[in-house]
Amino acid sequence: MKHVLVTGGAGYIGSHACKVLRAAGYVPVTYDNLSTGWADAVKFGPLERGELTDRARLDEVFARYQPAAVMHFAALSQVGEAMREPGKYWHNNVTGSLSLIEAAVAAGCLNFVFSSTCATYGDQDGVVLDENSAQMPLNAYGKSKRAIEDMLVDFEASHGLNSVIFRYFNVAGADPEGEVGEFHRPETHLIPLMLDAIDGKRPALTVFGTDYDTPDGTCIRDYVHVMDLVDAHVLGVKWLEDGKGSRVFNLGTGKGFSVFEVIENSRAVTNRAVPYEVGARRAGDAVRLVSGSTRAESELGWRPARSNMETMIADAWRWHQSGHYDR
Ligand code: UDP
Predict the structure, then answer these.
(1) Ligand 1 neighbourhood includes 170 CB (under 6 angstroms)
(2) How many structural domains is the chain composed of?
(3) Are both 40 and 140 inside the same structural domain?
(4) Are residues 80 and 228 part of one domain?
(5) CB under 8 Å, gap of 24 or more: what pairs does 81-86 form?
(6) 254 alpha carbon to ligand 1 midpoint, in Å?
(7) Alpha carbons 190 and 175: distance in angstroms, whole number
(8) How far, in Å, is the centroid of ligand 1 from the Cα of 117?
(9) What are the backbone dihedrals phi and psi of residue 243, each rounded to the nearest 5 degrees, phi first?
(10) Which candidate, 33, 56, 108, 182, has a CA 20 to 30 Å from the CA of 189?
(11) Nearest atom in ligand 1 to 279's CA
């Protein structure tokens, strides 16, 4: 069987990617330093512990498995932290990715699937965000991801590295079979924090700003189910294996939900009240991030089947209540 090296395979999106890779007939090899991931989330292939900046360790892992492709998820990804500690984002995300890209090229592994973000677009309220939109990130998280996209372009020109770059909108939900799910410590994301507030693990959700220029004053995001998102990644590996070359794809549904709309959907799905309070805006947040592209559907054949808000919340809620979440 072919191997795929999955950096960050012990994390939220990476662990779901390993599950679908395995189902598609690949062996996912997780490369993770377990700084934010969990060894018990690595269920579908081997775990190789290591730092992205440890080139000797990366070389050893590439030599051992000779992967057909890399899926690069490992990264710091919190907007708030990126505003407070930008250096961490430049060191970890950019230096780590450079080391990984150089190791992949040296090993002759020229198929690279990269986890980028709609945060690279920044705040362009009113502009349709497709893959050709300008990238004007607002924070070191988005800037670090844009820098890695630039790196991939350079290494294609110099070494023939082929990349599929996915710019994710907001990822939510969990494996409906309950084998893996979302688990961050600390948790910073809207839906898991809301579910925590619903079942009393936290006193209340804080809504970050109600004075934005949107119909209800709260920020708008485009939410995509993690299972749909990782399905796109497997299609990305196949795209590269078929020799279709480098391509950028937005992964979103094109439908925006405000924070208050997500709260209302959570109330309806769980049939429980959502305790919340209104707080200040969070620095670095864009007003509205909604994908304006269907390229992934038309070119990759992506069919996002679970990315409606009720299903995402229901799957997240089932995982939340499963006990895994309390580890
Ligand atoms: N948000 C919020 N309260 C929270 C966490 C998030 O109001 O405790 C808002 C945040 O301002 C943004 C949306 O929820 O508008 C999604 O934030 P999240 O951190 O989940 O993802 P991001 O958009 O930063 O990737």
Answers:
(1) yes
(2) 2
(3) yes
(4) yes
(5) 81/141, 81/188, 82/139, 82/140, 82/141, 82/142, 82/144, 82/284, 83/139, 83/140, 83/283, 83/284, 86/139, 86/140
(6) 18
(7) 18
(8) 14
(9) 75, 25
(10) 33
(11) 7
Q: What pTM was estimated for this model as a whole?
A: 0.96
Q: Are residues 85 and 214 in the same domain?
A: no
What was the pLDDT predicted at 327?
Answer: 60
* pLDDT given at position 57: 98
pLDDT at position 318 is 96
Confidence of residue 325 (pLDDT cuts 50, 70, 90): low
- What is the mean pLDDT of the segment spanning 275-303? 95
Residue 201 sits in the same domain as residue 228 = no
> Atom 11 (ligand 1): residue with closest C-alpha?
208
Binding site membership of 221 for ligand 1 (Cβ less than 6 Å)? yes
On whether residue 142 sits in a domain, the answer given is: yes
- Residue 325 located in a structural domain: no
Give the span between the Cα atoms of 22 and 175, in whole angstroms. 14
Contact 97, 90 (CB under 8 A): no
Mean pLDDT of the chain: 96
Question: For ligand 1, what atom is nearest to the CA of residue 194?
Answer: 8
58, part of any domain:
yes
Q: Decide whether any atom of ligand 1 lies within 6 Å of the 206 Cβ.
A: yes
Digit-coded pLDDT (tens) for 144-192:
999 999 999 999 999 999 999 999 999 999 999 999 999 888 889 999 9
Same domain, 86 and 209: no
Residue whose Cα lies nearest atom 24 of ligand 1: it is 79
Closest ligand 1 atom, residue 219 Cα: 15
80 CA closest ligand 1 atom index: 24
Residue 37: DSSP 8-state: S
Its domain, for residue 296, covers 190-221+254-320
**CATH at residue 73:** 3.40.50.720
**How many whole angstroms from 172 Cα to the centroid of ligand 1?**
12
List, for residues 44-102, the tens digit of each pLDDT value: 999 999 999 999 999 999 999 999 999 999 999 988 899 999 999 999 999 999 999 99
One domain, residues 81 and 38? yes
Are residue 16 and residue 116 in the same domain, yes or no? yes
What are the catalytic residues?
141
Give the residue among 173, 213, 211, 123 at the shortest CA–CA distance from 307.
173
Residue 268: give its domain's CATH number. Answer: 3.90.25.10
Confirm whether 237 is domain-assigned: yes
Q: Does 205 lie in the same domain as 295? A: yes
